[in-house]
Structure formats: structure tokens, C-alpha cells
Known about the structure:
Layout: H1 4-25, E1 48-53, E2 61-67, H2 70-75, E3 83-88, E4 94-98, E5 106-113, E6 132-134, E7 150-151, E8 157-160
Parallel strand pairs: 1-8
Antiparallel strand pairs: 1-4, 2-3, 2-5, 5-6, 5-7
Amino acid sequence: xxxNTQRIVAAIATAGLFIGGAWFASGFRTDIAEASAxxxxxxxxxxxxxxxxxxxxxxxxxxxxxxxxxxxxxxMDYNNAAGYxxxxxxxxxxxxxxxxxxNNYYSVIAFHDANGDYDLNYDAEYTPTEGYAVSGMNxxxxxxxxxxxxxxxxxxxxxxxxxxx
Length: 165
């Protein structure tokens, strides 16, 4: 059974480890660099805001589409998208503002159209050859599902483009 002196020393050591660990952990950065200005020329803090990261090159355009219908989402039908924006690609984070999209939930698809043909291109095995991102998708092996990828306007959505090796 520990005596009072041992208990006090243990409490002081625990407090020291706790404070020291907190100080050490405060030096780690976990936040993602935010795009400081809208890539589309319209910056508004209302509606749907998409921060896009991870473009590998400055070639082509970044295309971002917001969908409120499952059929348009499944077919990537930009004619029936609730919102469509494109901007020149850059290796820096980009922000896309959809100020009119503020009264529904939306699924977002973005892709790096490196060759300028306005399509997400695939190889013979139906593997994408250009970078892409879908809200709610966490890795390359996820299948995009409309209802799992719905996001609420008013809060910025951070997406990272995935590229297959």
C-alpha cells in the first residue's frame, strides 16, 4: 500500500506528464490549408462551399458539380446538376462557392480534367485516369453512393482529389 508521500509524488508526476504531453502535442499541425479566396471570383459565406485540395498539375481545369438528384449524380450529368463550376487547375488549394445552393443537401463530385475534354477519363479496366473526389468518399476503393455523400450547405466541404497509380 503506498504511503501519502508516494501518492503526492505520483500525482505531481502525472500532472507533469499531462501538461508536458499537451505542450508537446500542441506543436503538431492537423489542419488542412484552406483556400483563401474563391477560385470562381464569387466569394460568399452562404450556400455550398467546397475547398478542393491535391491537384497534381496546372494542366486543364478543375470541374466541380453539386447534385440534388440521384439519377444526375449516378450519370455525372452536368446538365441536370444543381450547380456547376470550373476553374483553371492549380497545385494550390482552391475554393468553389455555390451561393445559390443553400436550401437542400447536395452530393459533390469534382475532377481534374487535365486534357480538357470535360469528361472523367478511364482506362481499359475502367479505372479513372484523372484525379477525382466525391463528398463522403474516403479512399480510392469506395464506391460513390448518392445518399452517403450528401452534405449540408453553410459548412465548408473539404475534398481531396484521388489519383490512381
